[in-house]
Design goal:
Strand content: under 5%
Largest sheet: none
Mean pLDDT: 76
Number of strands: 0
Order of helices and strands: HHH
Helix content: over 70%
Distance between the termini: 24 Å
Structural class: mainly alpha
């Protein structure tokens, strides 16, 4: 789960070097944990650039392109929220904490 946390990669990798995690597990989780985030950030940047050029009138596109662009953005945000909720539930279960309980 540490690989999925938004912490700068250099700090995360340096901190994980002090743990007893096996190198093979570290490489596998680094690959699985970093690639989706990298793809999401790259896609978001590209979409934002397209959206800005579209709104400023520099780029002419059809309504279908606009719908696909907005649908993709909606799906990205929805997935990020759902993954966050699922990770929170798993962490609460592993720590034996009532979900959304107040202290």
């Amino acid at each position: 789960l540490i690989q999925l946390a938004y912490i700068p990669i250099s700090i995360k990798n340096y901190g994980l070097s002090f743990t007893s995690i096996l190198f093979n597990y570290f490489i596998i989780t680094a690959f699985i944990g970093e690639i989706p985030g990298t793809l999401a950030v790259t896609w978001t940047g590209s979409t934002t650039r397209d959206l800005i050029s579209l709104l400023s009138g520099k780029q002419k596109t059809s309504q279908v392109d606009i719908i696909i662009l907005l649908l993709g953005l909606f799906c990205l945000i929805t997935c990020m929220v759902l993954i966050g909720i699922r990770i929170k539930k798993r962490l609460d279960q592993s720590l034996n904490v009532e979900p959304y309980s107040q202290l």
